[in-house]
Amino acid sequence: MAKRKIKIGLVDADLLCNGTRHPNLVLMKLAGFLNDNGIDFKLIIDQDEDIAPYKLIYISRVFTFTQMPAFYEKATPSEQRKFRKGGTGFYANELNVKIYRQKRDDDMSQLENDPFLCKYPNHRGGLRTNGIDLARQMPYYHLYDEFVDRKVAEGFKREKYKDYQQYSIGFLTRGCIRHCPFCINKLEDRILPYSNLDWFLDDERDEHGHLLRPYIYLWDDNFLAADPQIWRNKLQQLIDTGRPFQFRQGLDERMLAESPHGEEMAEMLSRTKYHGDFIFAFDNWKDRPKIEKALKIWKHYNPKKGTKFYLFCGFKQTADNREKFYRDIWEIFQRIRVLMQYGCVGYIMRHEDYHNSPIPNIYIQIARWCNQQAFYKKMSFWEYTYRNQTFWEQGAGFEVTRPIKPYEEFLRDYETGYYEREDSRGKVRKISRPLQTFLDFLDMFSEHKNELLEMFNYKLSNLKDPKLWE
User: Which pLDDT belongs to residue 2?
Assistant: First the structure.
């Protein structure tokens, strides 16, 4: 009787649960190891997949809110033994520090100690002879091809899935020094070299000799906080490739202010072929002095480069803490004001705790305004909110004489019953959800109304001041 061929299933749980913008790097590396050893594997992209043909199924989950796939939930006890689970989504919310540390250590080492994988040789050099060496393993960049082809067949544009097909992906360094309580690296104390660029840089070309993956993106946690010799050498290697690259988790802007090499960092980055906006983070209002000092350095060397800052918010919100809720929204807009003054854009990053706040939808509306540069660069938050209202009115067939008007004019209309009158069709205008959320927030914090209206009218064209860095 012929020996049954081994087949391994790979599961991106986040992909199966409402999708994700990014491919799963660990799964691509695992696929690369299996491919190196001639082992049959498949990325499972159906909730009702028949798992009988698979010897083992490796499930990776990045987000704690991701639901496990249906075929996992309905698996029998004997089928459950096929599954190997890993990823930050299985432990990121653990509050007990000791338990968190143990779970993270176990998760970070489990694949390299996996009994099945350790039966097969490592083809990627280094000291390890058997099993996967995650730092050195070349990802298998075709893992998501079937998924992308299916989405294109469903009518989606291939460009929507460029992250799965146009990038070499990896970590040059791992670790951080900041101890942010919301971050998976909160217990880390240092940054160490991880992969060499050539361990994950793909050189596959099409029939015309063009690179299939012409871009590079990097998942480094805090690249600029590494030893100067490390970031300097690795940054030069990126420059030498001639390929556009991007640090997807952002760079630590504070290092430009804190490090004696801050100006060198800014100058060296100014010479790179960067892909898209430079991304930094302004997560804490208390960091304002460092951020402004760093921005003066950054804008001096990069006056015309697109610069975006992640703006973390919503952490540890509760339904009964009005003061903390107000402070969080206030800090979002104060950070935005600083960024506008320096001609930079923001990008709201909501912790899932925002759902627990008294008015969760205010975070959603702020993100929809801030995270779309076409709105952020041309409108204040109030203007964006009111334009949503008139856009709905136009779609419903109502006459709109002014798409945007000041809040005071809207308030006069509101108080004189404009939104309660019937038109010639017998229809009544209604308040759209974005505008109602805006009004609910003003009503909840009526004692801060003047301050809020000032904040909600911050506008890039009014606040940008090149004298701050010239």
Answer: 41
Tell me which residue of 9, 140, 13 sits closest to 65, measured CA to CA. Answer: 13
pLDDT at 373: 96
Bridge partner residues of 9 (DSSP):
42, 57
Q: Which of 159, 169, 235 is nearest to 25 (CA)?
A: 169
Tell me the two tokens of residue 200: 């994950």
Q: How many domains is the chain built from? A: 1
Question: DSSP secondary structure string, 328-356?
Answer: HHHHHHHHHHHHHHTT-EEEEEE-GGGGG
Q: For residue 386, count CB atoms less than 10 angstroms from its CB and return exposed for 0-12, middle for 13-18, buried for 19 or more.
A: buried
Rounded to an integer, what distance in angstroms lies between the CA atom of residue 468 and that of residue 466? Answer: 5
Contacts of 291 (CB under 8 A, 6+ apart): 253, 254, 257, 282, 338
Residue 49: inside a domain, yes or no? Answer: yes
Asked if residue 13 is part of any domain, the answer here is: yes
Q: Tokens 């914090």, residue?
A: 445
Burial bucket for residue 406 (CB in 10 Å: 0-12, 13-18, 19+): middle
Give this prediction's pTM: 0.90
What does the mean pLDDT of the chain come to?
A: 95
Q: What CATH number is given to the structural domain containing 128?
A: 3.40.50
Which burial class, exposed, middle or buried, applies to 212 when counting CB atoms under 10 A from its CB (0-12, 13-18, 19+)?
middle
Domain that holds residue 3: 1-139
The string of DSSP codes covering 34-58 is HHHTT-EEEE---TT---TT-SEEE
Beta strand 173-175 pairing with 191-193? antiparallel
Residue 19 lies in a domain: yes
Q: CB–CB of 9/51 below 8 Å?
A: yes
Collapsing DSSP to helix, strand or coil, 9 comes out as strand
Arithmetic mean of pLDDT, 244-272? 96
Helix (H) / strand (E) containing 462: helix 460-463
What's the distance, CA 181 to chain centroid? Answer: 17
| Secondary structure letter of residue 159 according to DSSP | G
Nearest to 244 by CA among 335, 306, 194: 306
Q: Is residue 60 part of a domain?
A: yes
Angle at the Cα of 320 from the Cα atoms of 316 and 326, rounded to 5 degrees: 70
Q: What is the pLDDT of residue 1?
A: 38
pLDDT digits (tens, 9 = 90+) for 131-154: 999 999 999 999 999 999 999 999
